[in-house]
Design a protein that fits this description.
By secondary structure, the chain is mainly beta. It is built from 2 helices and 11 strands, in the order ββββββββββααβ. The protein has helices at 113-122, 132-140; strands spanning 12-16, 19-25, 35-41, 51-53, 57-64, 68-71, 74-77, 83-86, 93-95, 102-109, 144-146. The radius of gyration is 15 Å and the shape is globular. The model has no long low-confidence stretch (mean pLDDT 94).
Length: 151
């Protein structure tokens, strides 16, 4: 086995509504232990509904912009170089409320959520974004559920 290289113009390009994704590692070269995705959020882009994963961890490393993260009722504005970790069972979402593009590298361990991103890419694209009910239904197939923050 040799080292694999993913060049800047390589990787599967996908979209989840207004969120752009580039699959850097789908898990094929890591025995499905790790998936890596470059996530690009245009200015003023809402993220997915707040949710929890029951079978995988996610991390988000911010490389540009100032995306926001929400966990339950706690909100954070990220800076370049910060890492946000959402372990199994941690409610979370992200968005880009700012005026500049935000880019993050996201890991999923194990890699099974990569197929979730692929399913979102196959959904019809409309001016109103993705249907939240359809997204929630797809999430359930990946041991993920939408949660509402407590009052």
């Amino acid at each position: 086995m040799s080292i694999a290289v993913v060049r800047p113009a390589e990787g599967d390009l996908l979209s989840a509504g207004p969120i752009r994704l580039r699959i850097l590692e789908a898990g094929d070269r890591t025995s499905h232990r790790l998936g890596i995705v470059e996530v690009t959020l245009a200015p003023h882009t809402p993220g997915p509904p707040q949710h929890v994963h029951r079978e995988h961890d996610e991390t988000f490393y911010v490389v540009s912009g100032r995306p926001s993260f929400t966990s339950g009722n706690d909100e954070f504005t990220a800076s370049v170089g910060e890492l946000f970790i959402a372990g199994v069972g941690t409610p979370h979402t992200f968005a880009n409320p700012g005026d500049e593009r935000a880019v993050m590298y996201c890991t999923v361990t194990p890699d099974r959520y990569i197929d979730y991103f692929r399913e979102l890419d196959r959904l019809p694209k409309g001016s109103g974004g993705l249907d939240p009910k359809v997204v929630a239904d797809i999430m359930t197939r990946y041991a993920t559920e939408v949660v509402q923050p407590s009052a």
